[in-house]
Fold this sequence. Notes:
Layout: H1 2-14, H2 16-21, H3 28-64, H4 71-104, H5 113-123, H6 125-130, H7 138-154
Helix pairs in contact: 1-3, 3-4, 3-5, 5-7
Amino acid sequence: MVIKAIKRGLRILSSPREEFENLNKRTFESVVADYMTLLVIVAVLAGLSGLLYSVFRALYLDLSLDVSIQYFRMINYAAGRSMSLLFFYLFAGTFLLFFISLILKPFLHKMKYTSLLKILFYSLTPFLLFSWFYLNPLPWGLWSIFLLAVGIKTHKDIKIKEDSIQKRE
């Protein structure tokens, strides 16, 4: 399931128009499952990379500058920072995304809310795949905005019968 979600994310980045056109064929639950899988993986990777970065930085400072470091306290502090980073990713990936969708919904009033969420989940793929590196998040944000624009532009509502179980809104 993890490999499948990563491959789908890479396909979204390599050919966004095709993937957004095929988005209507996927159920909302499968899109959410892929998104949450990637979100949890990225949160854990961000926490681990933060911890490893702090440990290797402390080792470098200890060996090169002859700085006295209390490793137990440093690892305790770095682990706390890493856990807070992990929970920030989970918070930003769920609640902040929900607030962004509420802000966008009045501007896209003809689009179903579940369709908007599916497009938002797909458009956040650059953040999910690359943000755990310690780099500037601005390129990932611009790439996500581009994917959001492509997703909105290629969106097509499929007419669903009124009494269908798939009618949600």
